[in-house]
Amino acid sequence: MFGIIATWRMALEGITEAKEMLKDGASCGDAIETAVRAVEDFEFYKSVGYGGLPNEEMEVELDAAFMDGDTLDIGCVGAIKDYANPVSIARALSKEPVNNFLVGAGAEKYAHRNGFERKNMLTERAKIHYHNRVKESKDLELKPYSGHDTVGMVCVDQGAHMSAATSTSGLFMKRAGRVGDSPISGSGFYVDSEVGGASATGLGEDVMKGCVSYEIVRLMKEGKTPQEACDIAVTNFDKELKKRRGKAGDMSLIAMNNKGEWGVATNIQGFSFAVATEKEEPTVYLVQFDEAGKQYFEVASEEWLENYMKTRTAPLVRK
Predict the structure, then answer these.
(1) String of DSSP letters for 137-194
(2) If you average pLDDT over every residue of the chain, what do you get?
(3) What is the average per-residue pLDDT within 8-31?
(4) What is the CATH number for 204?
């Protein structure tokens, strides 16, 4: 059995390629890195990699992580600038004996010394988004912080080896140097090949308060299915934040165990995710809620999928 699950529709092309690799016997590490890189390289996905939305100083700072579920090795980068495919840099760091989490200039020096591709990650399209948001914020008193759709993935290969990975440009117009949950072990991601893995997307500042990815893996270790674990962890932590703080930020979690079974839970409308397993073709699902507030999944329609791409690739005009 093999499989891969990812946050958001933007992962579909990547997990489609990863499934073919897994079918041919590729390792979970190679498959998940390939899948995340596909998202990082597509400039129209404005919350990850090339074309990612800039910080308040109009600089693109990227966060990424990789975890090996066999060894529990992790590699992470935070606030790295001007390097393509931060997930690959994170994976390389996971193989180092120490210094596994590097940020800013230190991460960039490591990437340079190890021959990673240097690239200006700020696109003209992202500049237009930035200038439009500045104008909207002044004219309409809008909050600049929006658009924080991390791509997070969990993968299991034919040998039941597992990996997890994340990549993001973080909050739009964040302060320089801000790092969210995505590269933080236990918060943005966690995986154990003896159990399963989980990954998060949402408001990092709130996700980090609960180490929700680790909690999901812990619940699976106690015998919960991935879906049960997601439901319990997300529901309980959402309630806890609201009790203590009066509100809870966006929080969506995906999970997969070492049998390729998966689960998803969210506290927002509009969350999408993508799955591919040995038995299931690459599919995009939308999370919906019934009148009682109970979530359920439906396969995204062709109309929804077409509109998704049209919206993201539509020409932009500076306001």
Answers:
(1) HHHH---S------EEEEEE-TTS-EEEEEEE--STTPPTT---STTSBTTTEEEETT
(2) 96
(3) 98
(4) 3.60.20.30
